[in-house]
C-alpha cells in the first residue's frame, strides 16, 4: 500500500466502485452471508441510508477506491444510540498491508466525535477453515482491541456449509450515567 492513500467520506456515486470490491466477497466467500450481489442502485441506496446517521468512508489510491468501512445501527431503538456495528471490506490484493487498520482507526475517530461508545462487529466464523472462510477477520478485530462476546453456532448456510458467527466488541469510552447525546455524522 502506498503512502498516498487518502480517506474520505463515501458518496452514493461511489456505489459502482464499492460494489466491485464487495462482489467477490459475496460470490466467493462466506465472509458475508449475502447470496446475491446487489445492484449498483441498491448499493447506492445503502450508502445514502448509512450516511444519514453514520460514517461511510473510503480509502483512495491513484484515484481508485481500494477499501471502505462504515458503521450502522446496532439496533434502531433510541436506547442503543451509543452502540454501532462496524463493517470493512478491502480489495483482495490490498489485505494485509495496514489499510484495514488505517480505515478502522479513521472510522473510530469519527464515531468518537458522534459520542459512540460501543463498537460491535458481527463476524462469520468456522472451526474448520475452508476455501470460503478463514478466521482472519477475528484476528484483525482482536488486534484492534475487540474482544469476543458471543458465539452463535451454525446460523448461516452458504456454499453447502453451515457457518457460525461471533460478535466482538470494543469500548471507546466510559459508560456515564448521563452520556453525551448521539450526534449524526451529518452534524459533525
TrEMBL record:
**Keywords for the protein's UniProt record, in alphabetical order:** Acyltransferase, Transferase
Pfam families noted in UniProt: Acetyltransf_4
Look up keyword Phosphoprotein and say if it applies: no
- Which GO terms label this protein's molecular function in UniProt? acyltransferase activity, transferring groups other than amino-acyl groups
InterPro entries on file: Acyl_CoA_acyltransferase, GNAT_dom
**Domain of life according to the entry:** Bacteria
Q: Where is each N-acetyltransferase domain found?
A: 5-173
Task: Output the PANTHER family linked to this UniProt entry.
Answer: N-ACETYLTRANSFERASE (PTHR43072), UPF0039 PROTEIN C11D3.02C (PTHR43072:SF23)
User: What is the protein name stated in its UniProt record?
Assistant: N-acetyltransferase family protein
Its source organism is: Aminipila luticellarii
Amino acid at each position: 500500500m502506498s503512502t498516498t492513500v487518502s480517506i474520505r467520506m463515501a458518496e452514493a456515486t461511489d456505489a459502482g466502485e464499492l460494489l466491485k470490491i464487495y462482489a467477490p466477497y459475496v460470490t466467493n466467500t462466506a465472509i458475508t452471508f449475502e447470496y446475491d450481489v446487489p445492484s449498483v442502485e441498491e448499493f447506492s441506496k445503502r450508502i445514502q441510508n448509512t450516511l444519514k446517521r453514520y460514517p461511510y468512508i473510503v480509502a483512495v489510491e491513484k484515484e481508485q477506491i481500494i477499501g471502505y468501512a462504515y458503521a450502522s445501527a446496532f439496533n434502531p431503538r433510541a436506547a442503543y444510540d451509543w452502540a454501532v456495528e462496524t463493517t470493512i471490506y478491502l480489495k483482495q490484493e490490498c489485505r494485509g498491508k495496514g489499510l484495514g487498520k488505517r480505515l478502522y482507526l479513521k472510522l473510530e475517530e469519527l464515531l468518537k466525535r458522534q459520542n459512540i461508545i460501543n463498537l460491535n462487529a458481527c463476524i462469520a466464523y468456522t472451526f474448520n477453515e475452508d476455501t470460503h472462510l478463514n478466521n482472519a477477520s477475528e484476528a484483525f478485530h482482536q488486534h484492534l482491541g475487540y474482544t469476543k462476546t458471543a458465539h452463535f453456532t451454525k446460523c448461516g448456510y452458504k456454499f453447502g456449509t453451515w457457518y457460525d458467527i461471533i460478535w466482538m466488541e470494543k469500548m471507546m469510552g466510559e459508560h456515564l450515567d448521563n452520556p453525551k447525546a448521539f450526534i449524526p455524522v451529518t452534524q459533525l
